[in-house]
Write a structure and sequence with these properties.
Blueprint lengths: L4 H28 L4 H36 L6 H41 L6 E2 L6 E2 L38 H14 L7 H6 L1 H12 L5 H10 L1 H5 L2 H18 L8 H20 L7 H13 L6 H9 L5 E5 L2 E5 L2 H15 L5 H4 L6 H10 L4 H13 L4 H8 L4 H4 L1 H10 L13 H4 L2 E2 L2 E2 L2 H8 L9 H17 L5
Antiparallel strand pairs: 1-2, 3-4, 5-6
Helix pairs in contact: 1-2, 1-3, 2-3, 2-4, 2-9, 4-6, 4-7, 6-7, 10-11, 10-12, 12-15, 13-15, 13-16, 16-17, 19-21
């Protein structure tokens, strides 16, 4: 790409700065040469016109800046993007020529007027006599009056000078005041506010209307009100420029000319895609809500936080919740992504220590809030698991408490006894045995842990054992022995 955006903008600004300096010098010379007010007004109108175009120039510069950043990142422009970029450069150059021409015309008007003044002969002599020889008018001696004391008059307001014969007095219209105010706000170094902002930001719009409707208000007073405005103070220059991009897009959208090819639209599309990818990864419901993603993308762009990963994660985490799904033709509800991973960790930590998930959550917080907190980094999942072990240690023998404090879970502590219990009671999966089962818990007491042989004997005394196949076989064998003892079986 041949166009150097930064150089293009720098050169344009330098050229305009030089032109404005020349125009200011011409204005100063005009005052010295007593150029008539009509000519000065014509010159000023050209400067005012140039000033009203400055916000549009800044708008173009802001949009070109986005392209410059894309190019600096090494992004390759598509054919459509290249076409949009070329059009933007062309429009920017065209607008710069218009501004330069207005400033030059303002200067030319004054230069021409000064030339006419300096070439007009002075009429200091009075023609007299038949030969037309200039005759000096004799001066009569001026008598010296005798000074007499006079009372000091009360000062009265100095009336405005009456217009000279033939002089056109320009009446400032509301449109003139608005253009003047917008030009001042756009060209004042510490403001540089686009007219687009005064059109769309309510507080700035009210200030502009107040200035237009108050003829006695000066430009300085208006600019002071702008500097004191809360919206102006709250937003950085970068954010103000992004607001301009946003409102310009809205104008295009309203006129049906937004086709997805402007720099603003392409930036929003990128942010949306990034948000959706992150939302899917963490299990946020925002991933399935295009309208919410679009709104979020616009807010992130305008507030200049599209690269703030921590802020984005917090935003998306707030939308983490169970979502509807379909398994085997049946509707289900559950988490996904990182939310599912964290939920499974909580379920495992609770189950391995004899609790429900709700038992191990801190305070009265819901599991959804805990999962959101884990994703955003406000809650440490390892701390929740450690708290589950501490909770499980309450009321346990010292031996069990020591093991739990070392990072073991109740599942690990009672694993040998659960295995024996599952075998004796013919339970297929040891994990089906509740860790709070009284018989299981009796295996470890303050007196120590029971040996597995004694634990098996104790299990055979439990009511559940009588329903096992082994118990039935033992009973059948015993009954057969009794019959044999009485001679009923061979």
């Amino acid at each position: 790409m041949a166009v150097d955006v930064n150089k293009l903008i720098a050169d344009a600004k330098a050229a305009q700065a030089a032109a404005r300096t020349a125009a200011a010098k011409a204005q100063a010379e005009a005052s010295k040469n007593k150029i008539d007010s009509e000519t000065q007004a014509r010159s000023k109108n050209q400067i005012d016109y140039a000033n009203t175009l400055k916000p549009r120039l800044e708008d173009y510069e802001s949009r070109l800046g986005i392209w410059a950043r894309k190019i600096a990142r090494g992004d390759k422009l598509s054919a459509i993007e290249q076409k949009e970029f070329d059009r933007l450069v062309k429009d920017y150059n065209s607008l710069n020529k218009t501004v330069d021409a207005a400033i030059k015309k303002s200067n030319d008007i004054l230069v021409e007027a000064r030339r006419k003044v300096t070439t007009t002969p002075s009429a200091t002599a009075i023609q007299g006599g038949p030969t037309g020889t200039p005759v000096q008018t004799p001066s009569a001696p001026t008598p010296t009056p005798t000074p007499t004391p006079t009372p000091t008059p009360t000062p009265t307001p100095k009336p405005k000078p009456k217009p000279k014969p033939g002089e056109i007095v320009k009446v400032e219209t509301p449109a003139d005041r608005e253009a003047t105010a917008l030009g001042a706000a756009a060209t004042t170094a510490d403001l540089t506010l686009s007219a687009t902002l005064f059109k769309n930001i309510p507080s700035l719009k009210l200030l502009l209307e107040k200035y237009v409707k108050t003829p006695g208000m000066t430009q300085d007073a208006f600019l002071k009100l702008v500097r004191d405005d809360v919206w102006y103070k709250q937003n950085s220059k970068e954010i103000k420029n992004r607001y301009v991009q946003y409102y310009n897009f809205r104008d295009l959208q309203a006129s049906g000319q937004a086709q997805g090819t402007t720099a603003y639209e392409m930036e929003i599309a990128k942010i949306e895609a990034s948000l959706k990818k992150r939302a899917v990864a963490i299990g946020s419901a925002a991933a399935s809500d295009p309208a919410a993603l679009r709104q979020a993308a616009e807010n992130l762009y305008i507030t200049n936080r599209s690269e703030d990963e921590s802020f984005i994660t917090d935003f998306l985490a707030a939308s983490v919740k169970t979502m509807a799904g379909m398994i085997g033709g049946k509707v289900t509800q559950g988490y996904s992504g990182e939310a599912l991973t964290n939920y499974d960790k909580l379920v495992e930590a609770a189950r391995d220590n004899g609790f429900q998930v709700s038992d191990i959550l801190p305070g009265a917080t819901t599991e959804q809030q805990v999962i959101q907190g884990i994703i955003s980094g406000n809650i440490d999942v390892n701390r929740v698991i450690a708290d589950a072990r501490k909770l499980a240690s309450q009321g346990q023998p010292q031996y069990v408490r020591d093991l739990l404090s070392q990072g073991y879970s109740l599942k690990q502590v009672f694993a040998p006894y659960r295995t024996v219990m599952a075998n004796v009671l013919e339970i297929g999966d040891p994990n089906q045995i509740d860790l709070n089962d009284p018989l299981l818990r009796s295996a470890i007491t303050d007196k120590g842990d029971m040996n597995l042989y004694d634990f098996r004997k104790q299990l055979r005394q439990d009511n559940r054992w009588q329903y096992t196949a082994q118990a039935k076989e033992d009973v059948s064998t015993a009954a057969l022995g009794v019959l044999r003892d009485f001679g009923f079986q061979g």
